[in-house]
Amino acid sequence: MSRGTQGRVIAPVRWLWIACAASTSGNALAASDLVDGTIADRIFVNGFEYAPLLGTAFSPVSVTEGTPSSLTMTLDNSFAVAAATLTENLVDALPAGLVIASPANAATTCVSGTASAIAGGNTLALASGAQIPAFGNCTVSASVVSMNAATYTNTIPAGALQTDHGANQAPATASLTVTPASGCVPAQLFDDPGFETTDPGTLVNPAWAGTSTNFGVPFCSVNVCGTFGGTAAPLSGAFWALFGGANGLAEDSSIEQTVMIPSSAPRYLNFWLRRGAIGGIGANLVISVDGTTVATYPEPPSAEPFYVQRSVDVSSYADDGTHTVRFHFNTPAGPAANFSVDYVRLECSPGTSPAP
Length: 356
What we know:
Blueprint (H helix, E strand, L loop, with lengths): L11 H9 L13 E2 L2 E2 L1 E4 L2 E4 L2 E7 L2 E3 L4 E9 L6 E2 L4 E4 L5 E2 L6 E2 L6 E2 L6 E4 L4 E2 L3 E10 L4 E7 L5 E2 L2 E2 L4 E8 L29 E4 L6 E3 H4 L13 E6 L6 E11 L6 E10 L6 E6 L2 E7 L9 E6 L7 E11 L6 E10 L9
Parallel strand pairs: 6-19
Antiparallel strand pairs: 1-2, 3-4, 5-7, 7-15, 8-14, 9-13, 10-15, 11-15, 12-13, 16-19, 17-18, 20-23, 21-22, 22-29, 23-28, 24-27, 24-29, 25-26, 25-28
């Protein structure tokens, strides 16, 4: 039995479609997409339909740090005589460092489609049940952003688009270039951001002034302080600032440094914080610039097992003047709370300090 004569009829009009059709998905057809010179198809009881194509693109393709770009997935059903229905969710997992912007602006033109994207998250999705029109295409889009200058390549693998006409046979890729924000030179402004010049005997740090009602200074090393049952330790290196640790006693402690913040540039106070033990009695960490509170970190509902990077916008102090940045911790007498701080930096964008 020869191919092309069982279960389908090859009509001249089909060959006309093949000769004239072109992909609008952003991905050119490859040799692997062709069977006997035609686009690979799937055979069904009532005939055949072509598997859909999938493309992805950014607009614009180049932005500065913190500026959103629109990410669009195009679902192409141009070669099919019937609508294709998604049988599974289509999920685009963004490359590391690229996230959904706020607002997310998630949208789709697919019939019965529901697009989802959460600000700060790393996925754009289209729910199953969405339909791609016959002889046409539809899109899914959202705004994305990065705070780190780099080139990000977004790849959606083959088989990610599952429909009743089959799956996309080729991956879809697109690249976004993120350039540094104008006016901000990413030079480090603090002396000793990781507290590594702390004296191992006295625990005095020459770059950061420190106070503690119970310990004299809040700087620690594992050799001197231990880890308080695994609830406190440096992020990296030998030293960190430990606020708390005085079980049953009230504790008031602080670290501060005076630094010049250049003008005409965004600046963010980026630091790593772990609230590894909580006493449940109101421990609190307040960050201030020149005595004005810019951020507050109270005890969380549960202890944090790891450090998390935090960012505070201090751009209003970027004026070529000197400013005192202070971390101030306070807790009343009672069960101990341990707040660990490490790797404190002033940078051009929020959350750009990788864990050292």
